[in-house]
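Narrative summary of target 7.
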Amino acid sequence: MSESVIRPTHIEYGSKSFTAILWSLFFAGFASFSSLYCVQPMMPIFAKFFAVTPTQSSLPLSFSTIALAIGLLFTGFISDRFGRKPIMVFALFLVSVLLLVSASFPVWEIFLTTRIFIGLAVSGVAAVAMTYIGEEIAQNDIGFAMGLYISGTAIGGMGGRLIAGVLVDFISWQSATYIIGFLNFIIACLFYLLLPKSQHFKPYPFRFSRFKAAFEQNLKDPKLRILFAQGFILMGCLVTVFNYISYHLLEAPFHLSQTWIGLISIAYLAGIYSSPKAAKWGFQYGRDKVLPILLLTMMVGLLITLIPTLWAILLGLTIFTFSFFAAHSTASSWVSVQAVQYRAVASSLYLFCYYIGSSLLGSSGGLIWENFGWVGINFSVAMVLVLGLILAVHLKRL
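Modeled conformation, tokenized:
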């Protein structure tokens, strides 16, 4: 008998509650990740406006993702005490307010500080949403629901980049940030109204002994350790590529405007398609077979971007992004299934590594860009993906 039949009170595909959850979490993913990544196409503008280097211009994103990673270690436990929906609602409203504040004080140090708090606020959505799905959705439908949520994060990442990239060609970066902040406030209101209350949540008071035991149990599992490393590798590679493709396309022979650079983020549409598809592939062929193939296709897409034509770069980015989101969906759903106990902590650890990879590899990529250009970025990301492939092959043998 299937798990979804054993647990009839859990929400199944096709029900009104399932649809409400999907739309709510889809928009939550959009709001939180548009606020996170709207600064990425603005990096060349920050370099001029604040008189900083390309490496320093990546700090607004890197500081946010570091704060997000740290927050993920604790938001699961906070939501264990106060509930899944209340934490996510509070986080979404806080993000929208912080976006407005960040644009109101155009001083580099203040701007970076607000970006840190935005990252902490986004952590209240990222890990808790995955835990909510694991608790409320029937086991057979978790992979599909997780894929749709990740699609929302993909559209959010794309939307933030696209909206900001287009707007800053016509208005200031501060005005563009205000618009994104107001949009996120509207989404926070809709999320509060649409998301069903948790039916399977049981509050637990915070205890350090439980906190310690949860981390120890998850880190003892060799499969989970490799999946956490995959999160670090996958996100670090994606952010490095998209951080510095803007600089590459501003230079000869392309000389693209900020609007066209913002439009490059339409490559994320491939991720919207591949995220839910990955659940089907994992079920049909096995996650251990799918993940190595996706890492290989990421490398193929990356290498295509070395061809010095705009269409080749768009094709390469599309293949790279398609494969990334499918790989991320595969790895994150695998974590939810592999973690028998302390699932919220396992999700938090995966995402902690995921965003630490974004921060460390994304910022260090600036040094590679300044010294070796796009070829250097391409080679370094390819080497990291080779490491991911080796780990994925080893994961099959465990």
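The chain has one domain: 11-196+203-397.
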